[in-house]
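Narrative summary of target 7.
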Amino acid sequence: MNHDEPKMTGLGAELNEDKSRLARLIRMVQEIRSEPRQTVANLQKYFGISRSQFYKDKDALAEIGFKFNHHRSRGFEITEDQLTPVTGFSLSDRLILMFALEHLSATGEAYLAARAVEVGRKLASGLAEPFQSHLLECFDNQITKQKFGVQPAILAGLQEAISEGRRIRIHYTRSEDWTTSWREIDPRRIYLRRSNLYLYARTIDEKPMQWKVFRLNRISGIQPTGIRVAIRPDDDDGFQLRMKNAFGAVIGDEVETIKIRFSGSSCHYIKEKIWHPSQRLEEQPDGSIIFTVTVADTYEVICWARQFGKEAQVIEQ
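Modeled conformation, tokenized:
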């Protein structure tokens, strides 16, 4: 008798043979969900694929229940998403997962942390009222307000403005002199660095307009302007390039180089991981290490190095 197992056919067999494509499809779903207001060309560039391959991937995703369209002015619109159903969870299942997501939002990698907040709120959506509202209020206050210091209504308003491509005004406190003022901006992305949430936005009230970063916990109010903003292909390219220059939260086009000598036990810690893509480590005859990075803000590097006390010394800036 032939006891061969049934062979996979169709998309299942194709993906089983091409694990790298499967990984790309998963990442593509994540990118479209998190950043819908971007161009097809930018998504192609991000994944390094041709236009024809993009549409093949689009068809493959549609086959497994993730369907979307793209509009030139509004970006990606998800029309069907069966990859993250929130069904079959008991009350205890949902509570356990929400507490786990609370921990992830505080300690996880930037993309996962941002998604954790979103998924945590979805888990409450299948509960009966008034328990659903009470649980959402508790979750928002615990995660958004206590972990990040951001008012839940502010975060929700920013996410809506980004998704719909709306120009807004924010009441913002500057860290330079702690004065507050209303700023008119085109919000583009929310991201997390070093346990703080930041907004990447284009300033409309400055001439010339500039792309800047605003810390979310310093935004105390949002006002609509009634203006919609079209997508520009270079918006995301600019963000990704500036992010590469960030050592911590500060991003930018201009960069500076800083060198720090590490000695003693700190050398083992410095060699354990890559702290920045530009870093260079030069081991010295006396056992010390010269750590060199080129970043947008060298002060962030100095603040980071202070944790090593006398074992860290700035030698060139």
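Confidence is low (pLDDT under 50) at residues 1-13, 106-111.
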